[in-house]
Structures are given as structure tokens and as C-alpha cells.
Amino acid sequence: MTAKNEDVLVNVEGGVGLLTLNRPKAINSLTHGMVTTMAERLAAWENDDSVRAVLLTGAGERGLCAGGDVVAIYHSAKADGAEARRFWFDEYRLNAHIGRYPKPYVSIMDGIVMGGGVGVGAHGNVRVVTDTTKMAMPEVGIGFIPDVGGTYLLSRAPGKLGLHAALTGAPFSGADAIVMGFADHYVPHDKIDEFTRAVIADGVDAALAAHAQEPPASPLAEQRSWIDECYTGDTVADIIAALRAHDAPAAGEAADLIATRSPIALSVTLESVRRAAKLQSLEDTLRQEYRVSCASLKSHDLVEGIRAQLVDKDRNPKWRPATLAEVTEADVEAYFAPVDPELTFEGETQ
């Protein structure tokens, strides 16, 4: 079987539907076409009795997926935003479908797994990480807010680990991902090929029994004491102040990192994660994220953040508002306003 979109390689082997994200030069960043191909295949395989499981991998050596194609988002935001809204609409529906998939959906989250990569990997029911996993929700660094169901997972991580990951945007390890609820199983990087062959030959359970290992200690879990203490503040400014006042060197480093991020994105992210904690389902959270993402298209900071990091690459964004003190409650609230059309899921009506 050949795929219509060669950015996603599609095959069925031994009753396992194989999806390989295939843009290795871009660390398999997701395009709209890739999202569409994945959605179509998952829908077809769901009702195909000859397919008993799905296996998601990324081509190349660098990782599963570095996120969405944010340069395309940049160009859409500079125009009318319509294509970005369509992309997110379909991407978030795919994330929800993965979250409720009725067959084993095995995601190999090896290497870099960030942003949109978390969306296609961390909502599956068999989530595998390795010793090379470098996971992150780094959106605040480009003036954006964690999406793809990321706030659902971040808000449910133990203690304040999710807020730490969201506000710093810093990467965390495979062992951290398991502790935080972003993954389930640990397989060493050098055993991944054997593991994937075993999934096809012997089934998911047998492959896990043969190759999954006890993960190493989680560095973030070992830092829970200062993280839980410092991230309780009402505002991002309160959190930064608590981090700076703490004697743990890593706390000061976290404060320095947060201070480089977009003030409005940080403020909205804090509110988004806190609201997500009160929402009942992944779908409810994705609906909220869709509103927030659509609002981001109208912000100065999304275009400026992508410009600085990925277009001009001067790494010197000029945020607006420039400081946390200038961000108002109304500024934050505006990100959660209804949109037209709202995000809907299969079987729902607007």
C-alpha cells in the first residue's frame, strides 16, 4: 500500500497499521496534509478487522516530531489566519481521535517530541519513550500557548510539574514523561527496532513484555520540592519571584528562562493550564485550546516569536506587552472568547 501523502508513509504489516512521519529534515514537523492522511488512515483502520493495532514512528534519527509547521502558521497569521485555523481544527480533531482510539495505538516517542508531536504521540493508549526522548511543550518561546491537548496532560501532572514544563517550555526526559503522565513504557533506544518488529510479529503485549524496562529516576520528580513550592503563586510574576528567592540553583535557572518568554503567552498559559484542570475531557480541553490558538493568531507575539526563532533567527523577540506587569486580566480573558466556528468533534453539531 502506498500513501497519497509521502510525508506520511502508510503500510500494513502483520495486521499492524504503520504510520511513519516522513519529513526527517524538518524533524517530521506536521503539515496539514500529514494531519489529513493520519486522520483518514486511522478512520479506515478503526473499522478494518484485519488491522489489530497501529504503530506510529518518525523517520530519521532525530525524533518522532518537532511540532507543527510553525512557519506555515506564521505566514497564515500574517495573512488572514484562515489556513492556520483550518489546520488546528483538523489537528485537534485528530488528537481527540487518537485519545479515544479503540485499538492499540503505539507511539514511539524517541528523540525529539515537541508540541504537535506530543499531540499525535502522548494521547495514544500505548506510549513508549526511550533514553533519547527529549519532550517539551515549548510554545511560550514563540509567543504561543500549549495546545494539541497539552494543557490536559500538563494540568494533570503530579504537583506543579506541569506548570513548570509549561511556563519554562524546557525539555524533559522520557523518565520525566512517564512520571508526568505523557507516556507509559520505557524501551531503550537501541532496542526500538527490535520492539517494533516484535509488535508486528508477536503483538503489543508480548513486545512490551520482552523489551520494556523500568525507567531510570526522573530528574523532575527529584526536584518536586522546590517546584511544588515555587509554582503556587497567583501570577507568573509571583512564580518568578518565588523561584528567584529559592536557594535551589535550578529554581533560579527556571526563573531566568521564564523571564525570556512572551509575557502575554505566559499569562495565558498559566490560566489555560488552571482552567484545563477543571475540564472533564480531552475534547473539552481541545475546545478551549482552539479558542486560545485562534486568539493567538491576532496577537503581536505569535508572529514576532516565530520570526525571531525560525524566520530571521535573530533570537531576539520584541514582545508586546514587553513586561508581565503590563498584561491585564482583560488581555488574558480575551484569549478564551468564543470563536466561530467552534471546534467540534465527530458526531457533534455546531
TrEMBL record:
Residues 16-336 form the Enoyl-CoA hydratase/isomerase domain. This is 3-hydroxyisobutyryl-CoA hydrolase. NCBIfam families: PRK05617.1. Zn(2+) 2 binds at E46, H97, E348. Keywords: Hydrolase, Metal-binding, Zinc. It comes from the Bacteria. It catalyses: 3-hydroxy-2-methylpropanoyl-CoA + H2O = 3-hydroxy-2-methylpropanoate + CoA + H(+). The keyword Repeat does not apply. Zn(2+) 5 binds at D193. One of its GO terms (cellular component) is cytosol. Zn(2+) 4 binds at H75. Zn(2+) 3 binds at E61, H189. SUPFAM superfamilies: ClpP/crotonase (SSF52096). It comes from Mycolicibacterium thermoresistibile (strain ATCC 19527 / DSM 44167 / CIP 105390 / JCM 6362 / NCTC 10409 / 316). GO terms for biological process: L-valine catabolic process. Zn(2+) 1 binds at H32, E83.
